[in-house]
Amino acid sequence: MRLNVCAVGRIRKGPERALIDDYLKRFERTGRALSLGPCIEVEIDERKAQGMSDQADMLERAFPTGAYIIALDERGDIYDSRAFAQMLAARRDSGSRDVAFVIGGADGLDPRLLEKADARLSLGAMVWPHMLARVMLSEQIYRAATIMAGSPYHRD
After folding, report:
1. Which candidate, 87, 85, 93, 75, places its Cα nearest to that of 140?
2. What is the CATH number of the domain that holds 85?
3. How many domains does the chain divide into?
């Protein structure tokens, strides 16, 4: 099952980019044996979108047809790491070919896109900048694969 991180904004070279690249590289190595991966990033240039509606249109074009859509939203469901891993395993085991995580810009996601989402995920009660949300999501994707693989990376 392929994972897609579709996000408004570009992350240039720097510490956030290095962390995302590292976690997604680790995920690809761990996930391969679990029928997970690759994880594809699609960045939407916020300068080319006139507001949330345009961003939503561009994001919708970014995810694969038939993908299970998970919108990152501060009002979404909060999972611990094990529950997040179980959710991804359930999607894989149900035959999903693609899961798309959708991260909005500074103003969040257009309500129309939130309504179309199959699920909503919150990274906690605090609001995070999109760059840090992408780092945390990438780490949790990698952590989920290690949990499924029985790796000692995750400790309870």
Report:
1. 85
2. 3.40.1280.10
3. 1
